[in-house]
Amino acid sequence: MFTGYTPELIADLRLRWSRMQAALCADGADALLIAGNVNLFYAAGRVFMGFVYLPAEGEPRFFVRRPVGLQGENVTTIRKPEQIPDLLHAVGLPSPRRVLLETDDLTHSEWVRLSNVFRSAECADGSALLRRCRAVKTPYEIKVMKLTGSRHAAVIPQYASVYEPGMTDQAWSVEMFHVMLKAGSLGLFRIAGGSMEGFMGTVLAGDNGGAASPYDFALGGAGLHPSLPVGQCGVRLERGMAVMVDIAANFHGYLTDCTRTFSIGPLAPRAYEAHQVAIDIQHALAAAGVPRARCEALYELALNMAAEAGLADCFMGLTQKAKFIGHGVGIVINEQPVLGARSPDTLAEGMCIALEPKFVIPGSGAVGVEDTFLVTPHGMQGITPCDPAIIEL
Known about the structure:
19 strands, five-stranded antiparallel sheet, six-stranded mixed sheet, single chain
């Protein structure tokens, strides 16, 4: 444990360790070795270059390579991971017979090196276990998520104040990113998966809202350059355009997701109709999103409501449709679970979920909403409280 932590954070970290240790025991593993930034932050409360070694029983050990000078209980400075077995032996900890590593977060060479650290141990995947643990937030994490959501919602109404007629979508996005950063956002937009990239969020104006992207976001956008083919494309904002603003907030290391739709002057009637259906879908999902609700069933509920409104053809995209209606949110923007087709997951109390019903209306653009919710025994409670109505500029 590193020095300088509050008693509240210390107690919460101990809860996280106990949850991971229960999962280790259920898996038949003796230990978990964590090396990736996301899981280091989850298990240790900070990012550092090094490792957290969490045995199935007892206290974790923190092995730090950089920065120098970190102090705390069970904290040891090392030069290389090969030192870890001898250091564990020195404090009376047995060598693990089965150790879990982060398959999804390590390169092949890193995996090979770390698996050779414990030569006699069986090495197996620990990423799935960690994702499951991170999916259900602890009391401290929920407090942080609520604080972030509240600040996020307070920033969104300021976007209109930095809009100027004649702007491009990129020029306006720069001003909105500036507003978010001035409000205290760290700016870091963490995404799970090596093929997913982004910068703070996306601004989709007009027909760019329906442009297909290689990235698995609800709506993509063409992007400004082939090296980052997602989001704003440099189009000039013109009368009759819908502009969907999906900028994440990260004030304390945890992200909230909140999307609002703006319009340059009035939109076509079908755009307003679709936007209201999106709000209705979100409300229905939130009411049905109780613990043990099936994620696939929630997705089907959204599909059915869009079809009943006669809007199935433009729901969650045009030529390329997203096959989900929501996802977990936390240290990364796409935590588990996924509310999508063929999802085997169910909701649990304490999960934080982004619900994002969206439509693309040809000639107008993308409309709809996204908010972050907390799963409670009585349904989902919104934690990004701001007006969902289309904001006319």
